[in-house]
Amino acid sequence: MTPAGSLLYATDLHKAYGPTPALDGAAFSIHAGEIVAVMGPSGSGKSTLLHCLAGIVRPDTGSITYGGRALSAMTDAERSALRRSDFGFVFQFGQLVPELTCTENVALPLRLNGTKRKQAERRALEWMERLEVADLGHKRPGEVSGGQGQRVAVARSLVTDPRVLFADEPTGALDSLNGERVLELFTQAARSTNAAVVLVTHEARVAAYSDREVVVRDGRSRDLEHIG
Ligand code: ADP
What is the pLDDT of residues 137-181, one digit of tens each? Predict the structure, then answer.
């Protein structure tokens, strides 16, 4: 059963890689418009939890539902389609395509969904303006700074108007000033679309941008009361 209002809901997740349990009974819940910081030390299972929730990794046991539908009941093709239509992703190192311009990178998810080039690039530019990187449109990722590249990656994650954004250490490779700015713009942009944000991080300051914190330790999760 999915609790009322929960968009993405997981219970009792277990996942082991060989003898190592990466998840050992983790649970998670998020509703539309909510920003949840997933905190915890390195190796505690945060990324594995994110990958399970996003339907990238299949847990050994446990249940995950999105919009009331069990991910385990979907075929691989259905899960891939769901990721393209409803989910957005931001990684630690932008993972932009080096051969494409920044605008082409942001437009790429739309192009893959069949949107025509002109329309895709127009929407890409709108998001790049909001992330304050519109002037970098013609540059390639190798020609922009780390912070600029992450803002381009954030624009790319939002361009399909996803219902859930998964961000895995999105500021982990940035200095604190650039990291703050990326987080500020990212969370503002996500709030404007009412997307749910699963924000994996080991940086305590990120919590200030979230509504709620979940702490993962040894593959188990627990909710923290938000302070301030
Ligand atoms: P975190 O994101 O908190 O750093 P991870 O979810 O990446 O933690 O990893 C949790 C545990 O699972 C670690 O012990 C890690 O080494 C292990 N692990 C994660 N992914 C794999 C994998 N693909 N193959 C083998 N072990 C893995």
Answer: 999 999 999 999 999 999 999 999 999 999 999 988 888 888 888
The CA–CA distances, whole Å, from 75 to 60, 65, 72 equal 16, 14, 8
pTM greater than 0.85 (yes/no): yes
The torsion of the CA quartet 137, 138, 140, 145, rounded to 10 degrees, works out to -50
User: 118, 72 in Cβ contact below 8 A?
Assistant: no
Say what angle helices 117-130 and 102-112 make with each other, to 10 degrees. 120
Name the residue at shortest CA distance from atom 27 of ligand 1: 17
User: Ligand 1 pocket check: which of 13, 14, 15, 20 to mutate, most ligand atoms within 8 Å of Cβ?
Assistant: 20
- In DSSP terms, 63 is beta-bridged to 11
Residue 46 in contact with ligand 1 by CB distance below 6 A: yes
Task: Report the alpha-carbon distance of residue 39 to residue 224 in Å, rounded.
Answer: 10
- What pLDDT score was predicted for residue 143? 97
- Output the CA 165–ligand 1 centroid distance in Å: 21
